[in-house]
Amino acid sequence: MLAALAVERQLDLNRLIGHQSNLVLAVMESLLADVEARIGTKPLTDYQKGRLNQLLSDVRGLVADRYESMQGDLFSDLKDLGQQESKWVLSSTNSTVGVDLMRALAPSATLKALVDTGLFQGAPLGDWLDRQAGDTAFRFANEIRIGVAAGETNNKIVQRIGGSTRKGLTGVLETSRRNADALVRTAVQTVSARARDITWSENADVVKGKQQVSTLDGRTSDVCIAYAGASWDLKGKPINGTHLPYNGGVPRHWMCRSTEIPILKTFRELGLDAEDFAPTTRASMDGQVAADLSFGDFLASKGKAFQDQALGKGRAELWRDGKITLAQLLDQRGNPLTLAQLRAKYDR
What we know:
Elements: H1 2-39, H2 49-97, H3 108-117, E1 119-120, E2 123-124, H4 125-149, H5 154-162, H6 172-202, E3 207-213, H7 222-227, E4 231-233, E5 238-239, E6 259-264, H8 279-285, H9 295-301, H10 304-311, H11 313-320, H12 339-346
Antiparallel strand pairs: 1-2, 3-4, 3-6, 4-5
Helix pairs in contact: 1-2, 1-5, 1-6, 2-3, 2-4, 2-6, 2-12, 3-6, 4-5, 4-6, 10-11
């Protein structure tokens, strides 16, 4: 069933997001190390105004460089992901139906433009990163000024920025990390969803609509609960009893985990003899899929080996024993998946 394949794909995307989140963390840790080195050991309280301003300028430059590097890597990965998603749409649908119904991939130029100029929660991705870089530089400079004015030691000022695990203190860098993490997660979901939508439109001769599949657990937003199972045609017009507007589709908010699946034309609409196909396949072709299929239901239906591979053996055992909840499983940061591994799994 297409819904089950979409859920399995979402598990892999969650692991890819975990890998990207680890990259963000590495960038932030590197940034903190460079700022600490730039602050040095000479007491900042002895700084003259000109020297302090030079330090703040250096810090702004460090932040800008790190975010520029992160943007380049992220844009490259997202363009790669868009190509992979388009290929996955064809392979997953055709393997489910048993016939090569879908043949047209999304145009490469369109997928690249999606990343370069497309809107991510209302603004281009580059604009979001520029804003986050500016906010981070401002917070860093503010904490340095506060520390200098209070006569704090250099180590204390660095602690203001980076926090202290030993002392249980959260620095302003953690805010930057969380913001960048949310942006990366939402960007992956956006590119995945848009690449699928573009591919379905390229195959409009066999695809007649799309249906939202929401992850139903303790972290699901009210919006995605309401949209679970809703259907629209390829232009976003509600169908099959749906009254909710499409409003751009998934992701419907920051950190959204919902996805969409295609509603294929019936065999009769395609001019084929429906009796030549198995009932289960026809159900998928008619769009009669389990729109409320949750990750928990899906994982419970799979064997232990699959659960261990998807979640990590230790986490899977805790989940099977009821010691951790489904909401704690979906992050997948402990079992990341790189783009190369994602491609190797599906691009055969």
